[in-house]
Design brief:
Elements lengths: L4 E5 L2 H11 L3 E5 L5 E2 L7 E2 L5 E2 L2 E2 L4 H11 L4 E4 L5 H16 L7 E4 L7 H9 L6 H28 L10 H17 L4 E10 L5 E9 L2 E2 L8 H13 L2 E13 L7 H12 L3 H13 L1 E2 L4 E2 L14 H15 L34 H4 L5 H16 L5 E12 L4 E12 L35 E10 L8 H11 L7 H10 L3 E4 L2 E4 L1 H13 L6 H15 L5 H13 L15 H12 L2 H16 L20 E6 L2 E6 L12 E2 L14 E5 L5 E7 L2 E6 L9 E4 L11 H8 L3 E5 L6 E7 L2 E6 L2 E4 L3 H6 L2 H9 L15 E5 L6 E7 L2 E6 L2 E4 L11 H13 L16 H22 L1
Parallel strand pairs: 1-2, 1-7, 7-8
Antiparallel strand pairs: 3-6, 4-5, 9-10, 9-17, 10-11, 10-16, 12-15, 13-14, 15-16, 18-19, 20-21, 21-22, 23-24, 24-25, 25-26, 27-28, 28-29, 29-30, 31-32, 32-33, 33-34
Amino acid sequence: MSAKHVVVVESPAKAKTINAYLGRDYQVVASFGHIRDLPAKDGSVKPDQDFAMDWEIDDKAKRPISEIANALKGADALYLATDPDREGEAISWHVLEVLKARRVLKGQKVHRVVFNEITKRAVTQAMAQPRQLDEELIDAYMARRALDYLVGFTLSPVLWRKLPGARSAGRVQSVALRLVCEREIEIEAFRAREYWTVFATLRAPGGQTFTARLTELGGRKLDKFDLGNEAQAQAAADKVRRAVLSVAALDTRRTRRHPRPPFTTSTLQQEAARKLGFNARRTMQVAQRLYEGVDIGAGTVGLITYMRTDGVQIANEAIAGAREVIRQDHGADYVPAEPREYVTKAKNAQEAHEAIRPTDLSRRPAEIGRYLDDDGRRLYELVWKRTVASQMASAELEQATIDIKAADGSAMLRATGQIVVFDGFLALYQEGKDASPDEEGEDGGRLPALKEGDPTPQVAIDPRQSFTQPPPRYTEASLVKKLEELGIGRPSTYASILSTLRDRDYVRMEKTAFVPEDRGRLVTAFLESYFGHWVEYDFTAKLEEQLDEISAGNSKWRDVLRDFWRDFARHGEAANDDESTLLSMEQAVANLDTAIGRRGAVIEAIDAALGPHFFPPRADGSDPRQCRNCKSGRLGIKWGRNGGFIGCSNYGAEENPCTYTRPLDAGEGETGSTGPRELGKDPSGEAVTLRSGRFGPYVQLGAGGNGAKPKTKSLPRDIAPDSVDLDRALALLALPRVVGEHPETGKPITADIGRYGPYIMHDGKSANLATGEEALSIGVNHAVTLLAQPRQGRGRPAPKAPIRVVGNHPQDSAAIDIREGRFGPYLSHGGVFASLPRGRAPESITLEEAVELLAARAARGPSAGKRRAPAKKAKSEPKAAAKAAAPRRAAKSKKSAG
C-alpha cells in the first residue's frame, strides 16, 4: 500500500531521518541533489530567444526521478522539502517541472515546506505550515545560472583560442583569481625596509621589572623609520642609558570586549580554517553531515541548523537554551541582564536565514563527541562554543599606559599593558587562534602598580632590529573574507570557487596560502586587458546586488540579463541601429574573437601589461629588457606549447639565434628571484645554489667545467623554492637514495625524483610517490606497501589515499572506499567503481547506499572503454574487399606509369 504523502528531500541520510519523524503515512524520497542542469555545450542559453534555457536531466538522476514518480502513485499530496535557500528552491522547482512534463501528477496537492533544522519539532511544524514555491527565488536562481553560463561559455572559447592551455573563465572565479594575482604582485614588488626599536627593561619601586619602548628622543616623537640603522639605534640607546628615568604620567581605563555573533557560512569557513585547518570544502562537507543527522543512541537527529546562511540571529528558544547552559556551566555572573540580539548585514532579507547553531545547546560537545568522527567532533564543538559565547557577558579589561620620562627631557618611553578583570565570554571562546587574553596586544602583559614621580631605574637597554613584512598571501579564510567584504559571491559558492581555482591549475597551495601559477597570471592579464570592466570588483558586486533585487521581487530577471548581455556581447563593436536586438552566443563569441584580434597581438598586450612586473629596474640602471645572453635581443613574454615563458627577441632567429629563456617570474639576477642563490657549501667545499630554469626551479652542486656538467635536481611541485635550505638541497642532490632492503628479496629499494615525478624502485619494479617530500623521507615499510600495489602507468600519479572508508562489504568483508577522481568522488570496491550521486558529500554516503550503488554499477557491465573489441571478420570478407579494390589499384598504377 502506497503512502498518502510523498516528501522529497536531497539526500538519503536526510530522508531516513525525516521518515522516522513523520511515520507510516509519509514516504520520504531523495532527489540526490539537482536532477537537471544546463548541458555543458553551446546553445543551452539562448539570449536571442529571450534567454530560453535547455535543461537536461542528469543520467544519475533518472533513477531518483523514477522512485519519486512510483511513490506518487495513489498518493494524496507531494511535499517539496529541499533546503531553505535559493538552490533548494531551485531543486524543488526542477523536480516539479520534470514531474509535470512526465504527467506523473494526477491531482495531488503540491506543497513547499522548509525547516532550518532537522529535528522532530522543526519538521512537524514545517509540515503543518506549507507554502507555495517562491517564484522570486527561482527567478534569482535562473538569472544567476544564466549569467554564469553566458560568461563562462562566451569567454572560455575565446580564451582557448588566444591562450592555449588556459582552462576557463568565470564570472566570480576570475575576480577571485585577480585578487590572488594582485596580492602576489604586491609581495614580489615589496622591498623590505630596516628599522630599529629601543626597548628598556625597568624596575618598579617594588622590585618588579617591566618593559618600555622609546617613543620620543630629543623632544621629537619617533616615527617608525627614524632609527633606520644600527648606528642610529645605538646612539639613541646610549642617550637612554645616561638618563635618569621616572614615571611622568599614567592612564588606566576600563574597556569592554563584546562577543562575536553566531556563525554565518563565511565566518564558519574562516574560523574553521584558522582554528581547525579545514579548507572551505571540507568545512561544508562536515557541516552537511552534522545538519542531515547523526545517530546519537536515541535515534538520528540533526545536530546543527542549516549551514548556508547570511543571517546572524538565532531563535528565541536557542537564546534561552544558551543562557541556561551559561548559568549551569559558568554561573549567573556570566549571563547578561538582557539577551543579545544581532542584526544581519545581508542585503536580501529573504535569504537571511537563522545563523548556524546547535539544534539543542544542552547537547554539550563532551557528550556528543563519542558519536562523531574527529572532524565532526571538532566542528560541532566550534559551532557550540561560538553560539554559547555569543550570549555570554562581555569581558572587562583594564588597559594601562605609563609614560616614563628622562629627568633632562632628552627621552620618553612608554609601557602598555592589559589585564583581564572579568573574563566573561573569553572563559569559553576567542575568535582566531586560541591564546591567553593577557598575551594579546603589542606588549600585553600585566604592569606593576606605579604612581606619578616613581623612579624606574634601568635594568637593561636593548636595541632590536626589525624589517617591514610584505602583505601576506591569501589563505582560504582571508580570501573568503575579502570576497565577502567586496560583496562578491555568496556563502554557498565560496567553496566551489576556491576549488575551481585549484582544479584549473590557476593557483597552487603552499601550506595554507594561495600562490598564482603562471597560467593564472596570464589569464588574469588577458581578462584585465580585454575585459577589464567585467572583472572589476565593483561591477561584480553590483551584479550580485541585482541578483538580490530579483529574489526580493524588485527586479525582473530577464531585464537584468538583457542589460548585461547587450554590453557584454558587443564588446569592441558599436551597437547597431536596433539596440533591442540581442546577439546569439555564437555571434557573441565570433564578435569577441574578432575584436580581440590575432594571438600575437594578445601576447603583446599581456607583455605590456605585465612588463613592469616581470622586468623591474636593474640595479645598474641598464635596460631591464636587454638580453644578458646575446646583449642585442629584447626580453619579452612568449608563448609555446607548454604555456608562457620569457625569451629573447632573437629566440628562433635564422642568424645568430639566442636560446635564452626563463620561466615567468619577477625579475632576474640580483633584483629578482631567478638568479642563482647560494645556499651554502657541501662537505667538499662545492657551492650549492638554487636556480630557476626553463622547466622550473632546481638545485645545483658546483659550476661544472672541463666538459663536465654540474649535478642538478629539479624541485618537485610540492616543495616551494622559499623552503629550500642547504640541508634540503643536499638531500635532493643525494638522490637517488637507498631506502633499505626489501624484506623478501634482500635487494635495495631506492627513492628518486625523475621526469614524471617522485618514485621508488626495487628489482626493476617502480611505484610512484605522491609528493617529493616522500622521496626524501619514505621508510622501508611504506615503500614495501606501495610496491605491492598494482602498477600505475608511466607518468601517472601514485594512487591517492581514500578520502573515506565507508565500511566493509557484507558479502566479502572487503573495504568500500571513497576516492577523489578526475570527475569527482567515487566508490571503489573489488575493481568496481561507482560515481557518487550528484550533489552528495562523501561523508553523507551510508554503507547501505554504497552497496546499492556498487551493485547497480556492476549490473550495467563494463564501461565502453573496457568492452572487448568486436570479433574479426571472416577471411572471405577481406577477399571480397580486395577484389572490389583491384580496379582502383590498377588505375592508380597505370596513371603512375604514364
